[in-house]
Amino acid sequence: MRLNNISLSGIADEAAQTLDMQIKAHQMLGWQSIELRSIQGLSIDELDEDAFNDVISLIQSHEMKVTAISSKVGNWERPITFDKETETEELKRIAERMHRLKTRYVRIMSYPNDGLEPQEWKEKVIARVQELTTLAEQEDIILLHENCAGWGGQSAAHTIELITSINSKALRVLFDIGNGITYGYDSLSFLKAVDPYVEYVHLKDSLNDGQNIHFTFPGAGESKVAECLAYLADRGYKGVISIEPHIHLIPHLGESPGNQNDLFASYISYGRETEQLVRSIMKTGVNNG
After folding, report:
1. 214-225 core/surface letters (b: 16 or more CB in 10 A; e: else)
2. Keyword Signal, does the record have it (predicted)?
3. Is the dihedral of CA 128, 42, 149, 59 positive or negative?
4. Which of 2, 25, 218, 222 is most buried by its number of CB atoms within 10 A?
């Protein structure tokens, strides 16, 4: 579903493990866009050829559009010391499959530290993301750096330095509204600073009770979801808003989804609340297609 120039999507493994149920969740929401992270616990590049052909068949038969691939590149499991060659080959496999899925965006992060001095960590991250960006240019895909784990996710200034140091249209920003509470910054201020480079948005919400981070339904937390959406509307954002509920499935904390029915139902509820919020704030009608 599109709300004028906004396309609503979602990280589908937060609805279900199987692709058919992931698609069903989006169809129940009336959304024809989907973001892929894992299927039956495997990332897109880990699927064997037969399984991936099944993915293509399901996506095509249901006329779904894949808005992005959420990869493991540079994420919380992969410090800057993670094997470079392994990850380069992984990105090549992802790129080949992205072309077959007809999508250009792949989410990355920028490598947690692993005992290096700050300057060395910075230099190694920038050099490594530069190499990945060069590969992305060759493969005609776009890396979306998320404000999450890693050197570039520490602050808006770090993100801007990473993007401008590399200076390529193949490296843009994926802004996740809900990450500010986890990483200790104001989401709206961060968004305003990185705005020129933002091409994709994740929507989640959370609050901090002084001891723990709790993920909430959109607008119920402290992430300034409404304010960020209003800012995006005012500046004429025309991209994707993709939900990442974290209500029952929180990958970086190792929390399993538990009851699959609860997972599916909460995803639907989260999607409906998101759509209502986007409609009210962006004051826009529905444009199906």
Report:
1. ebbbbbebbbbb
2. no
3. positive
4. 218
Question: How far apart, in whole angstroms, are the C-alpha atoms of residue 129 and residue 185?
Answer: 23
Q: According to the 3-state scheme, what is the secondary structure of 97-134?
A: HHHHHCCCEEEEEECCCCCCCHHHHHHHHHHHHHHHHH
Q: Which residues pair with 6 in a beta bridge?
A: 3
Decide if 23 is inside a domain: yes
What would the two tokens of residue 113 be?
Answer: 């530290």
- Is 289 inside any structural domain? no
Residues 146, 182 contacting (CB under 8 angstroms): no
The total number of structural domains that make up the chain: 1
Other beta carbons within 10 Å of 90: 17
SS (H, E, C) 161-219: HHHHHHCCCCEEEEEECCHHHHHCCCHHHHHHHHHHHEEEEEECEEEECCCCEEEECCC
> Which tens digits make up the pLDDT trace of 58-116?
999 999 999 999 999 999 999 999 999 999 999 999 999 999 999 999 999 999 999 99
**CA distances from residue 71 to 45, 90, 264 in whole angstroms, order as listed:** 9, 9, 22
Residue 150 within a domain: yes
Per the structure, the complete domain to which residue 134 belongs is given by 2-282
From residue 119, give the alpha-carbon distance in Å to each of 9, 18, 79, 185: 37, 43, 15, 22
Q: Is residue 287 part of a domain?
A: no
